[in-house]
Design goal:
heterodimer, A: Multidrug efflux transporter AcrB transmembrane fold, Alpha-Beta Plaits, 3 domains, 5-stranded antiparallel beta sheet, 4-stranded antiparallel beta sheet, 14 helices, 50% helix, B: alpha+beta, 6 strands, 63% helix, 8% strand
Chain lengths: 538, 395
Amino acid sequence: MSPQRHKITLAIALIVAFGGLGAVLATDTRPRLGLDLEGGTSVILSASGEGIDDEAVGKTVDIIRERIDGLGVAEPEVTAQGGDTIQVQLPGIEDENAALEVIGTTAQLTFRQVEELIPRDGGELLEEEEEDDETTKDAGKNKGKSDDDSKNKDRKGDSKGDSKGDSKGDSKEDNDDSDNESDPAGGDEDVPEITEAADQSVNDEEVVYPDAEDSNLLYRLAPAELTGDVITSARAVTEPGSNQWFVSLDMDGEGAETWADFTSELACLRDEGDPLSSQVAIVLDGEVATATGMADPAGSAGGGVECGTGITGGESRIDMGSQEEAKDLALVLRYGSLPITLTQESISKISPSLGRDSLETGLLAGLLGLALVLIYVVVYYRALGFVVWGGLVVFAALSYMVIALLGAGAGLSLSLAGIAGFIVSIGVTTDSYIVVFERLKDEIASGRSIRSAIDRGTKRALRTILVADFVTGSAAVILFFLAVGPVKGFALTLGLATLIDVFVAFCFTRPVISLLRKTGVFESEGFMGIKSTVGAQT
Amino acid sequence: MSRFGRAYRGESEFDFLGRSKLWFALSGALLLVSVLSLFFRPAETPCRQLPTKGLNCGIEFNGGLSISAPVPDDGPLGETDDLDLPGALSDSLADVGAEDAQIQVSTAEGTRNVQVQTREATSPEQRAEIVGGVSDATGASSEDTTSESVSASFGGEITSKALRALLVFLVVIVVFMSWRFEWKMAVGALAALFHDMVITAGIYALVGFEVTPSTVVALLTILGYSLYDTVVVFDKLEEQTSLFATTGRMTYRDAANRALNQVFMRSLNTSLTTLLPVSALLFIGAGLLGASTLEDLALALLIGILAGTYSSIFFATPILAILKERESRYRNVREKVLREQRRRRVTEDKSPVPATVGAPEHEDADAPVPAGTGSGSVSMTKPRAGTKKKRRRKR
C-alpha cells in the first residue's frame, strides 16, 4: 500500500474514533447501564404449555410489557431471550412484589357480549349507530361474495376504529339503558372503574375493560360466554382479487354449539334494533381486542348471521380492515387458545448502592489494569510501546462510542459481565500488538532489512490476528445466540471488542507502523527494544 | 547472554518438544488431580445438574434464595454483636419458613452486612415473605436489600444451554481449523481446550469455590482464550514447518521447536498483559464486598489464562508433533536428518565444525545442517547440535 493510502486510512480511523467519541460526548449519549450496575429487579420467566412458538412468546412479551406500563415503572425492558425464556428488567423499582404479581399471571381470552360503551375522558356517552353491523361476522368463511366484500370494504373503512371515533362525535348521552344493574364502583361522572382482575376468576362476572388501542374507551361487558381454549385455529386471510382481509376462526365441537347459541342471540338483538348489545367483544388479558357486530343476512347475501340459527359449525369469519388488523386479531385469538403458564424462574433484585459499587469497582479495575499494561508495553517494547498506547486509546474511544450508541439505538445495556469482557479484551487487544512486534523482531532477526521485515512482518502478523480473532469472534456469536442471562451480555462485549480489535489492527496499527518506517525511527537504536539484534546484523 | 535475554530476542533454543514426556507427565498429573477432585471429593452443595460430585454450586444452579442486606446500627439488630447476629436472624427467619437459612455476617466500609441463603423459596409469595423477613429483622430498607431467587429447574436450563453452546462452538472450531490448518491441529487445539477447562474446573472443585453464572462466563472465556492462544501458536508453527520441514531441511520436531522458541515471548507477553487487568479485577473485586461477580470471573479467568498459555505450547504442540511425525513424509525427513546427523557426528569428531554459524552472509545450500535456509539466522544456529552440546555439558 502506498504511504498516501496509509495516511488516508489512518486519518479515517482517527476521525471515526475521536469524531464519534466527540459526537457521543457532545450529545451526552451515555452507555446504558444494566440492572446489576444501576440497581433494580430482573425477572426471568419461562413460558410453558402446548404449542408455544416464537409468535406466542412474542405476544406474551407484549402482554407483559403492557401490564408493566400500566404500573408506571420507568423504562421497563421486556425481551424474549430465545426459546421460551423471557426477561423482564425493572430499573429502580422499589416495591418489586406488585410488579412480580402482575408479571406472572396467565393471560386469558374470552368472548363477551358488549353491554355498554363508556368514553373515559369526560367525553359523551354514546350509542352505536346503525352502521355498526359493518363489523361483520359471516357464518362460513366461504359464503362471502365479492359484492359483499366490496360492501364490507366500504364500510370497513370505518369499522372498528369508527364505531368508537364516529360515535364519539355523533350522538350524545342516553344509552344508559344497560347501565342500571351493573353498579360501577367508581361513582364519579358515571365512569366505572376498570376491573382489575383479568383471569378466570371474573369469567362469570360482568366486567369493565378498556379498548386495546384506545384506553379512554371502556366497555362494560357481560359474563364470558366462551374462553379461548375452544379455538382450534385462527388465520388472517384474504380472498383472491380483493384486499378485504378477514380472520377465519375455527372452534371445536363444544365451543361451536355455545357459539351458535350466543351468536344467534346477538343476531336477534340486532334484528330488534339494538346494535350495541348485538356485538361480541373479544377480550384478551383485560383488554378488548375488538368488538364486532353480527352481519346482516340481508346485506351480506347469505353470509350473515340469522336470528335463531347463529353461526353454526364453528367456522366464523371476522372482517377486518387492513391486513395488519386481521393479523393482529388472528394472533390474539391464537394466543388466547394456548394454555400458556408463566413460571418465574429467577428473580434478582440489586440495590442501587451495590450496583454503583460494582460499577466503580469494575471501572477502577479496568483503569488499573490498563495502566499496568501501558507501563508494561513501554518497559518491554520501549518507544514502540507508545504505538500500543495510541492503539489502546483508539480502542477505548471506539468501545465507548459503540456501547453508548448501541445503548441509545438498540437498547443494549452494559452489565457487570460486559465490563469484565472489556477488561479481558484489553489483554487480547494488546496481544495484537505483541504479535505484530514479535513478528517484526523475528523478521529482523532472520536477517531481513528493516523495510522488508516491516512489510512482511505486518502482513503475516495481521493474518494471524485475523484468524485468532475469528475464533474469539465466533465464540462470542455462538454464546450470544445460545446462552442466557449474564452470558449474553458478556458475549456481546467480547464480540464487539473483537471487531474493534480487527478494525484497530488494520486501520491504525498497520498505517502507523508503515508511516513510522518512513521516518526512519526504526533504524535508531533501542526503538523497539531489539537494538542488539539489529546491531548484530550491521 | 542470559537465557531471558535470548528469549527476549527470539533467539532461545529451548528444546520444548524434547521434553514432551515431562510436560505430558505434568499435565497428566494436573488432569488426574482435577478429575479426582471433580468426581471423588464430595462438595458441600454439589451441582445437581452435573455428574460431578466435587463442584460446589450456588443457588443460581441448584435453586433457592439468596439475600444480602445491610444491618443498620439503628435497626433492631444494630446492637447485636457479630457472633449472635446469625442466631437472632435465623430465629426470625424460621417464622417465615426458612429454617434452613445459612447466615453469614461481613463488614465492609464500616457497614455490617448479612448474607442469607435458603433453599426454601419455592413460590414467589414465599420469596417475598422471606425477603421481607430479612428486611424486618435487620431494619434494612427494601431499597438496600439485594436478593436473588432461582427455581431449581432454571439452573438446569442455564447449564444445558451453556453445554449446547459449547458443543456448537466446538464443531465450528473443528471445521474452521481443519479448513484453515488441518484436522490434526484441530485435535491438538481441542486437547488443549479440554486440558484447560478440566484443570480450571478441577481447581474449583479442589479449593471448593462456588460455581456461579460468572464462573460459567469465565469458563467460556477461557475456552475462547485458549483457542485464540493455540491458534496464534499454530499459525507460527504452520509457517515454520511449511518453510523447513516439508522441504526436508528439518525434522518436524525441530521446525516446531524453532516456531515455539519464536512464539514463546509472545505467549509470555500476552498472558502477562491479559493477566494484569484480570488480577486488577481480582484484587479490587475481592477488596469490595458484594461484587462477587467480578471476583468469581477474575478468579476463573486467572486460572484459565495460565492454563491456556501453558497448554498451547506444552500440551497442544507436543500432541500435534506426535500426530505429524507419524505422517510418512515427516518420518522420512526425520530418518534422513537423523542419518545425516549421525554421519556428521562422525565427521565432526575428525574436524569439528565452527561453533557459530551466525553471519547472515553465510550460506551453503548444500549444507546438511538445517541452518542452511538461505536467509541464515542467528536463531537457528543448528538447533539439534546446540541442544546436544548443552546436554553434554550438563553431564
